Fold Ethylmalonyl-CoA decarboxylase.
Amino acid sequence: MVKTKFFVDNNGISTFVINRPEKRNAVDYEVMTSLEKAISEVKANPHIKALVITGAGSQAFCSGGDISAFHALETAAEAESMLKRMGRILYELLILPKPTVALLNGTAVGGGCEIAIACDFRISAAHSEFGFIQGDLGITTGWGGGTILFEKLRYSDAMEMLTSSQIYSVERAKQVGFLSYVTSYQELAMRCEEWLLPIITKPSAVLTAYKQMPIAKWSQVGLWERMEAEIDHCSLLWESEEHKQAVNNRLQKKA
Ligand SMILES: CC[C@@H](C(=O)O)C(=O)SCCNC(=O)CCNC(=O)[C@H](O)C(C)(C)COP(=O)(O)OP(=O)(O)OC[C@H]1O[C@@H](n2cnc3c(N)ncnc32)[C@H](O)[C@@H]1OP(=O)(O)O
């Protein structure tokens, strides 16, 4: 089965689907490569007005990094190369000069929440749940998503979401500003299109100009450098006994 899909509709809305429902749409190297390519295509293709990222099935949007695949990364240096690669992809997604939507068809945890927060909007199915659960694994966010969360949510809300590792319902996630809109799973695709319609019917130059406003700020405040610092911290924690034990427990389904 192909691990990702990418298509563009007649309105210029492109959709990237992580297609690993049996692994709750976990991100491995193949998924990373496809996402990297899709972002480049969206940036370069003048017919594409927006990018939607979603997951296959109704159970998960994305369960973060593929812990079976990344379990093999033992040292801080080994972890850093994977984390930095995905961090750069999320930075490119963040600064894409076109509107982006995380279409949350199900639960997002760990790096899944990092992908979601790198998008401009988060539209969710009513049954989804969200958690920056990295703290329970003895690490921090490692793809730069913590830094992005602090940019997009109120300080105390971002701080609580990250440090508590709690699972948020859609109600709570909407309350803290993590979500833009909630609908039923059945209506998700249709509502997303409706949501995007007043946006994608504007000239591309207008959309790009608006997107440039936060991008200029992020460049001034050295956002990428701050994401790199986050990645460095996570890499160091990666080689801790606490992290290795937590991942082993999860792989053996003890936690
Ligand atoms: C590495 C980067 C780092 C970052 O920088 O942020 C991270 O992303 S850390 C976070 C890593 N992710 C996790 O630890 C999440 C683990 N998964 C779960 O907590 C749960 O699966 C779920 C997402 C809450 C869904 O629960 P549920 O619907 O009950 O499914 P199962 O738990 O039964 O899983 C089904 C199936 O999928 C496999 N799976 C799930 N998540 C991952 C994953 N992240 N990597 C690899 N495989 C995953 C799980 O092992 C099951 O497989 P089988 O046993 O073969 O059926």
Q: What stands out?
A: The chain has a mean pLDDT of 97. The chain is about 50% helix and 15% strand.
